[in-house]
Amino acid sequence: MTVADLLPPGISGIHVLPADHHDGPWDSMIVPPGTKERLLGTAVLVLRHGRALRSLSGPPHGLVVLSGPPGTGKTTLCQGLAQAAAAAVAARGTTTFVELDPHAFPGEMLGESQRAVRRLFTETLPELAARRPHTVVLVDEVEALAVRRSAASFETNPVDVHRATDAVLAGLDLLRDACPHLLLLATTNLTGAVDEAFLSRADLVLELDLPDTDVLARIVASSLAELATLWPGLRPLAEDTPLHAKLATACAGFDGRRMRKTVLAAVAQRPELAADPERLTADDLLAAVDAAVDVAVDVAAIPAVTA
């Protein structure tokens, strides 16, 4: 029996925060100014004052939605936010961090998805939330759980799709009343695929765009600085601001993950360089960028496959 077999249905992970091994993502994420502040402010407000805010005529639902293309760091940012928020409210107790798997609710039988989702929101999450003073729940690809009903295909059992989404909405309302100390973080690559009523319940919907060249330059600098902690001889490259800007300009359109991988790929270009990364030069970085850009062009040229 695996650990996954012991978890409640629909749950892929349960953690207690703050925890040392969860440090890192929040500080390493490079996003536009104000992004982290808005996210952390919303999280702390819900986790610390959720119960008091129930008296408002329009209390928060404790729902934050991050939307944007793949590679913009939505999931990593949410994981980092959970740790940062848990640290911010740690004086009042620990936080339960729950990761959901939205694909664990198949709709092969009419009504099955609805029953599974209802059970998640009315039983599983409240039981987990009762364990500690604060709870943060992460659901990636929330469009698989809260399908936009107005665009549901009649070829994929739309009745069950509607019922499952209805169950999600009812579940959010229930959690707001029963678990005001619970924060739900949702990510999606396609905001247009998420039900409008789900989005309307969000306290914050944040669109994450691909990084511009200024942000890419900061990512290059951060990646090289991290390498320099392992190999101090790389410190001059980590401090070469004009080089960072040049690399970022050449990689315009890259997402943050790809930019970091390109920097790392520079070290792996030749066996002797991989054996001694301190031999890395600006020319090696430029060559790695050229190779990455060439691959991007080749991939873009592949014709789309249509049915």
UniProtKB/TrEMBL annotation:
InterPro entries: AAA+_ATPase (IPR003593), ATPase_AAA_core (IPR003959), ATPase_AAA_CS (IPR003960), P-loop_NTPase (IPR027417), Pch2-like (IPR044539). SUPFAM superfamilies: P-loop containing nucleoside triphosphate hydrolases (SSF52540). It holds the Pfam family AAA. One of its GO terms (molecular function) is ATP binding. Residues 60-212 form the AAA+ ATPase domain. It comes from the Bacteria. PROSITE patterns: AAA (PS00674). Coiled coil: none annotated. Keywords: ATP-binding, Nucleotide-binding. GO terms for cellular component: chromosome. Transmembrane segments: none annotated. Belongs to the AAA ATPase family. This is AAA+ ATPase domain-containing protein. It comes from Acrocarpospora pleiomorpha.
